[in-house]
Design a protein that fits this description.
The protein is mainly beta. It is built from 2 helices and 34 strands. The relative contact order is 0.19.
Length: about 375
């Protein structure tokens, strides 16, 4: 019998061999020093109607300031007004129309929400109305959507022949993909137990491509090297930039064991032999970065991988031309412990899901100071 392959795409992202475009070389000393985001709490809420927010997979915010939260344990969306008032919920666990079993991410495009799930794509309106589902028939994990019908993803090469992976644009209408670039193969952690094989890809600990997209430009780099490339949708390089002297964050054995001790495999906790294998195979240092964001002013935010920092995030801020301007650190006030998959910047505000001192989950909104070019 074939082995059961379980792929946990915690943040499955993976780099074209850099072309001959201009390379901006930066030292790990920002030109303008440290940036103070100056967090000012606007509100904190744990009101989720009749439900309780236990685990948040992703947060998105629309242009009106409405907040959409995916709770993967319940397979539900929770929607909040800009002032923090709970509005409504939609979605549920299952296999029927508009239902999903395992969704960790979603994308907000205009008045539509797109939920990828193991090769399926579920479409909802932002009011929670189910629209349609599309089954691509393949395990594809989008990295970014260009519009409601096209997205960026990484395609596996022929593993037996050790060919490189590819960065691709997929058109959901024609069901065709276009290769943008060849990329070094992404890496993963692997553990086995009997007939079960568990592969874990995590951009904070296993090298892979991290990508940001804005205005039909792509910004991506393989996270084991601090070298990030900007291209058009045709893959043509515009420029790239590096940061020399950045040290990777350490990962302790205690943290490794804690990270995987609550992973659920086939409805139960990971078997001890698999846990031991994961702890042994996980690197002792984090990758350089795990997220790239481009703001409305063209500034490039590179989030530094630091798995053991539960109360803050470090970020390097580059100009639109790749010059290293600031180093910033977002530190949660009042001993909040960050629980959401990522922090969300939007129009001068920061959104995050965190536990308070009593261990109760809160959705928080902060006013922040954002740098300019």
């Amino acid at each position: 019998m074939n082995k059961i392959m379980i792929l946990l795409a915690i943040s499955a992202l993976c780099l074209n061999v850099f072309g001959a475009g201009k390379v901006i070389e930066n030292k790990a000393k920002p030109l303008k020093g440290e940036w103070d985001f100056n967090l000012q709490k606007v509100w904190a809420t744990d009101d989720a109607g009749e439900d309780v927010l236990v685990r948040v997979g992703m947060i998105r915010v629309d242009e009106s300031g409405k907040i959409y939260v995916l709770e993967p344990m319940q397979s539900k969306f929770f929607v909040f007004a800009a002032d923090g008032k709970f509005l409504y919920t939609f979605g549920k666990k299952g296999e029927g129309p508009g239902e999903f079993r395992m969704a960790f991410n979603f994308f907000l495009l205009g008045d539509q929400i797109i939920v990828p799930e193991m090769g399926k794509f579920h479409f909802f309106s932002t009011t929670g109305k189910y629209i349609k589902s599309i089954n691509l028939g393949a395990m594809i994990f989008p990295m970014a959507f260009l519009d409601a019908g096209r997205f960026i993803y990484t395609g596996d090469g022929d593993r037996g022949k050790k060919r490189p992976d590819t960065l691709k644009i997929y058109d959901m209408q024609s069901k065709k993909s276009k290769v943008i670039a060849e990329i070094p193969r992404e890496e993963s952690l692997t553990a086995t137990s009997g007939r079960m094989v568990l592969r874990v890809k995590d951009s904070s600990s296993t090298p892979g491509i991290v990508l940001g997209a804005r205005d039909n430009y792509l910004y991506f780099g393989k996270s084991d090297k601090y070298h990030i490339k900007k291209t058009g949708l045709d893959g043509k390089e515009i420029f790239s930039f590096t940061l020399e002297g950045r040290k990777r964050k350490k990962i302790s054995t205690a943290y490794k064991r804690k990270r995987f001790s609550n992973v659920i495999v086939n409805g139960r906790k990971m078997p001890k032999e698999m846990l031991d294998q994961m702890v042994k195979s996980m690197p002792d240092e984090a990758t350089f970065f795990n997220r790239i964001k481009i703001d409305e002013n063209g500034l490039i935010y590179v989030f530094i991988s630091d798995l053991e920092n539960e109360t803050g995030r470090e970020v390097d801020i580059f100009s639109a031309r790749g010059k290293y301007l600031y180093h910033g650190e977002i530190e949660m006030p009042d001993n909040y412990v960050i629980k959401s998959r990522r922090l969300i910047f939007k129009s001068g505000y920061l959104y995050v899901f965190a536990d308070d001192e009593e261990g109760e989950g809160k959705l928080l909104k902060f006013k922040i100071d954002m740098p300019k070019n």
